[in-house]
Amino acid sequence: MKSHFKLAFLLTSLFLSLAISAAAQDLGPGFTKIKDGIYTFAPDATTTTCSFIVTQEGVVMIDSCSSPIHSRNMLAAIKKVTDKPIVFLIDTETHGDHTANHYVFSPPATVINHTGAGAAMRKEYNPKRAETLAMKSAELREAVKGERLIVPHIEYKDRMTINLGERTFELFFLKNVHSEADTAIWLPKERVLFAASAANVRRILNLRPSVVIPDVLASLKLMKSLNPEIVVTGHGPATTTKVFDEYEAFYTLLLKRVGDMAAQGKSLDEIKKELKMPEFADWHDQARLGANIDAAWKVVNK
Ligand SMILES: [Zn+2]
Description:
The protein is of the alpha/beta class. It has eleven helices and twelve strands. It has helices spanning 2-25, 68-81, 96-99, 102-105, 117-124, 129-134, 138-143, 213-225, 242-263, 268-274, 289-300, and strands at 31-35, 38-41, 50-55, 58-62, 86-90, 110-114, 154-156, 159-164, 167-174, 182-187, 192-194, 230-232. A seven-stranded mixed β-sheet has the order 1-2-3-4-5-6-7, with helices on one face. A five-stranded mixed β-sheet has the order 8-9-10-11-12. Helix 8 packs antiparallel against helix 9 and helix 9 packs across helix 11. Zinc ion binds next to loops.
C-alpha cells in the first residue's frame, strides 16, 4: 500500500516536472525559464537578450529585443504565460538593439532608463528604419507596423526601486560602462541580476570612446558584491558571476600589457599591431580588440 502511494507520488511529480519543462519549451527556441516567472530570450551567443518577469500585478520587461520579429515573438511568449499587462519596460542601455522596439510593448508599458537615455536615443534614431526593414522580408514588413521612436517615459537618477506585486526591482546606474545610460536591475529575493553590457558572455565588447575601463571594473565589482545566483547580460544566454571574473581578468591583463608596452616606449599604433590576448582567443568579436586597446591606452597615459 505504502509503495503504491510512493509510486503514485513519483509519477505525479514526474508528470508535473515534464509539464513545467514543456511549458517553457513551448515559448519557442531561445526562450529559457530561469526561475519561477522569470524568462529570458537569447536567440544565440551574441544577439541581444531580452527578458520578462511576471508579477501578481503585471509584467516587467527588460529590454525590447533586437529585431522587431524577436519582439513580436516575445509578446506572443508573454501572452502564453500570463494575461496580465506589461506594466514596465526597463532598458539596460540606450542602443537601438535594446531600445528600438519599445513600440511593440508600449503602450501599455511605461519605459524606464537612467537620465540621458532619451537624448541618446533621439540622436541614434534613424527615421528610415521601418522603411529599410520593411524591404527585407514580408515578415519584417509586418513586424515593423506601428514603428516609431519611444524614449523612456521615466528617467531616474543613480538609483530607483520599483515594487510591483510580490517583487522588488532595484535599478542602479552603471557609469561609463557601455552607452550613455546603462542600468543594472537586481531582484534581491530571487537573486537574479540583469547586468546590462558591462559584461557579455565570452565576447570582446565594442568599447566606445566614452567607456572608462576603471569604471567598468568598479561596476563588475559592485555587481559581483550583490552575490547573484543568476546573471543575465545584455547579450548571450543567462550565466553566473563567472562572467564578472572573466571580464575582470581580461581588462586587468589588457591594462598590464598596454602599460608594459607603453613603458617600453611603444606607440599606440605599434601596440595595436603587436598586442595579442591569446588567453581569450575563443571569445566572439576579436576584431574589437583595437577599441579595447584605445580605452586601455587612455588609462595608461592618464
Ligand atoms: Zn549596446
